[in-house]
Amino acid sequence: MTATEPAVRIVHFSSVVKRPLVDAAGDRIGRIEDLVVHLGAPHPPVVGAVVRIGGRDLFVAIRNIAGIGERRPEFTGNRVDLRRFERRPGELLLGRDLLARHLINVAGGRLIRANEIELAHVHGGWEIIGVDPSPHGVVRRVLHGRLGSGAQPARIVDWASIEPFVGHVPSARLRIPYRKLARLHPAQIADLVEAASHEEGEEIIEAVGADRELEADVFEELDPEHQIEFLESRSDQDAARLLASMAPDDAADLIMEADQDRRLRLLEALPQPQRRKVRLLLSYNPETAGGLMSPDFVALPESATVTSALATIRHSTAAPESLQVIFAVREDGTVSGSASVVALLRASPEVPLKSVVRPMPAHLHPDWDLGATVRKMSDFNLMVAPVLDPDHQHILGIVTVDDVLELMLPTGWRRDFGTMSPED
C-alpha cells in the first residue's frame, strides 16, 4: 500500500448486528439482525441486511445503509420494503449460517471456527475479507462488539482460502467445490472428515465423490470408526462401487469392519477381479503379513527387457508405493529375484531383467505376525517385501512399509496432532 492509497477499513461483524438503524432525523426505525451475502466470489459481497422493524424481519439493501460499523447506522433509502425477508438462491446469513461454525481452511488443510467475521469496505461496497478464529473473536461476539469496531482482529484468515459448510442452508445451491479439496492430500481430507461433525463430514465426502479415485483414497485414510459411519448410509451397490475403487487390502479391512450380515452381500457385489483378491486377503488374520499384503504388484518374465519393465510400471494401476520394486519370474511362475526402480533406471534399456534383479529377495511368510514382519523389513531395509507361499516359490502379494506403520501406530494418532486451529 502506497502513501496515497487509503487504508482499507475493517469492521467486525459483531459490531454491526444488534445495532439500531435510524432515519435521517436520528429516530430509530429498527435493529440490524444479520447481514446477507452471496457466495461465489473469492470475497463474497454483502448484499443487504436483515432488519427487525415492528416485529418483522425485512430486507434492506446494503446500498441504503450508511455508517456500517458505527453505533447508529442510518437508513438512506426512500422507503422500506415491508415484505418479510426471504432468502434467494445462493444467499447466506453471516450470523445464522457462518458465525461460530466450522469452516475449511483449504490453504492450511484444517478446520477453523469463525469466531468473528471480518468485513471491509472495498470499491464502494462491503465484502467478507476473512474470519478471526482466535479467542478474541469469541469475547468480542459475546460482548456484541463493545470491544470497538476499530480494534484490529488478532488474526485474519483470508476468506479466499476458506470454504464454508452450507449443507444446512436451505437457499445454498453451492457445495464445497471438489477442485479446492482436490488440492489436499487424501490424508488431509480424511483428517478434516474425522474432525468435523457427521453432517459436515458427509458434505466433504459428497464433494470428493466427484472423483471416485480420490473418494476411495480418502476412505482408505479414514479410521475404521468413520469408515463404517459413512458406509452404513450407502446402499450395498454404492458401497461396493466404492470398495471396488479401493486397494484390495483396504477394501478387505473395511468389509471385515462391516456388520456380519452385510459382509457377504458387499463381497458378492464386487466386480469379479476385486472379489477374488479380497477373498484371498480375508482368508488371513488381518494382523499377519498375509492380512497386510496387497495382491497388486508387478511380476515379469526374466527375459523381459528393462525397457518393457519400465513401460509396465508406467502403465500399471497399482499404488505408487507398490511399484518401487518389481519381481522377475521363471517360465514356471516361480520367483527368481527383485529389482528396484532405481536399479532399472541405472541399467541399460535392452538388457533382460535376469541380469538386473537380485536373486531370491528377502521375503515374508503369510502367517508371520506383525513383530516378525517388522523385524524382517527392518533388518533388510525393505520398503516393499514380497509375501511368498509356503514353498517359497510364488509371490502371493507384497507388504509396503506404510501398511506396517499404519498398523503399528495407535488408533486416532493423527487426531492427536489436531486438525483444528490452536485457537479453537
Please name the CATH architecture of the domain at 1-172.
Answer: Roll
Task: Work out the radius of gyration.
Answer: 29 Å
Number of strands: 20
Strand content: 15-25%
- What is the CATH first-level class name of the domain at 1-172? Mainly Beta
Class by SSE composition: alpha+beta
- Per CATH, the superfamily of the domain at 1-172 is PRC-barrel domain
Q: How many helix segments?
A: 17
What labels would you give this structure?
SH3 type barrels, disordered N terminus, elongated, alpha+beta, five-stranded antiparallel sheet, four-stranded antiparallel sheet, 17 helices, CBS-domain, 424 residues
How would you characterize this protein structure?
Among the domains are: 1-172, PRC-barrel domain (SH3 type barrels, Roll); 293-406, CBS-domain. With 424 residues, it is an alpha+beta fold. It has helices spanning 94-98, 135-142, 178-181, 186-195, 198-208, 212-221, 224-231, 236-245, 248-257, 260-269, 272-282, 289-292, 306-315, 341-346, 370-379, 401-408, 413-417; strands at 10-12, 20-22, 28-38, 46-53, 56-61, 65-66, 74-75, 91-93, 102-105, 110-113, 116-122, 125-132, 157-158, 162-164, 299-301, 325-329, 335-340, 358-359, 384-388, 395-400. The strands form 6 sheets. Strands 2, 3, 4, 5 and 8 form a 5-stranded antiparallel beta sheet that branches. Strands 1-11-12-13 form a 4-stranded antiparallel beta sheet. The protein is elongated. It has 17 helices and 20 strands.
